[in-house]
Amino acid sequence: MSEYSAARLRAHDGVRHDAVGRLPIPVDSEFFQPPQEIELTGKIGFAGRIGDARKNPALLIEALMSLKRHIPNAKLCIAGPRDSDVEAMIKARGLENDVELLGVLEREDLRNFYQGLDAFVISSEREGLAIVGLEALASGVPVVSTRCGGPEDYVKDGVTGYLADFDPEEIAARLTEIMASVVRRKLFAEACRQTVEQNFSMQVFSETLDRAWSRVWDESVGSL
Question: Which of 87, 104, 165, 223 is the most exposed place for a label (fewest CB within 10 A)?
């Protein structure tokens, strides 16, 4: 779980703080890989249920509008179930040609989706983790996220992306920093991949789980 989720659990009455441990949720870094060549595409991405109000779709759309003032060819690619209210929002703002609604993607198509992005956006009001953000990092794609909880474990300012307030102008400014230079974009890609391999890979998960079970076993035997 994320530190955010662990803290919420510890806050409950009757829960011993030392009884709550963290086991990082792994991402399949063997499957989700960066593209062979990093190029600027002008595309930012979102994956998930865009119609869920907790995902804050209005903020995402407003951030795109702000971004286009800096990068006119910027496009938003949305993977996940389509939503009529969000589509109406896009149309009302005249962004029909600037938003690609891809629908639910098969796993290999999802990998290709990440590989085609300059940056990934999490605009949520609250997230326990947002595994899609880790999939993006594994694909070498930096993440710009609101300060919504879980993503704060892996979005490190200027390293794997940026954290932002619930402000479309700030989100757009952070995206612009990532998308302004292919050299900078490549540096982000390297750091994103390294972060996943060191902290969120299946191997790290397995090793952490083994240590946790060993500790539980030792404590159980010691109490006999």
Answer: 223
DSSP 1: -
The region, left, alpha or beta by phi > 0 then psi within -120 to 50, assigned to residue 145 is: beta
What are residue 20's phi and psi, to 5 degrees? -105, 115
- In order of start, what are the domains of the chain with their CATH numbers? 3-10+28-218 (3.40.50.2000)
Q: What is the pLDDT of residues 89-148, one digit of tens each?
A: 999 999 999 999 999 999 999 999 999 999 999 999 999 999 999 999 999 999 999 999
- In whole angstroms, what is the distance from residue 141 CA to residue 111 CA? 11
Distances (CA, A) of 146 to 8, 95, 221: 18, 22, 44
Burial of 36 (C-beta count, 10 Å sphere; 0-12/13-18/19+): exposed
pTM: 0.86
Q: Residue 27 and residue 38: Cα distance in Å, rounded? A: 21
- The residue to which tokens 């085609």 are assigned: 116
Pair of tokens at residue 203? 């191997």
Q: What is the pLDDT of residue 6?
A: 43
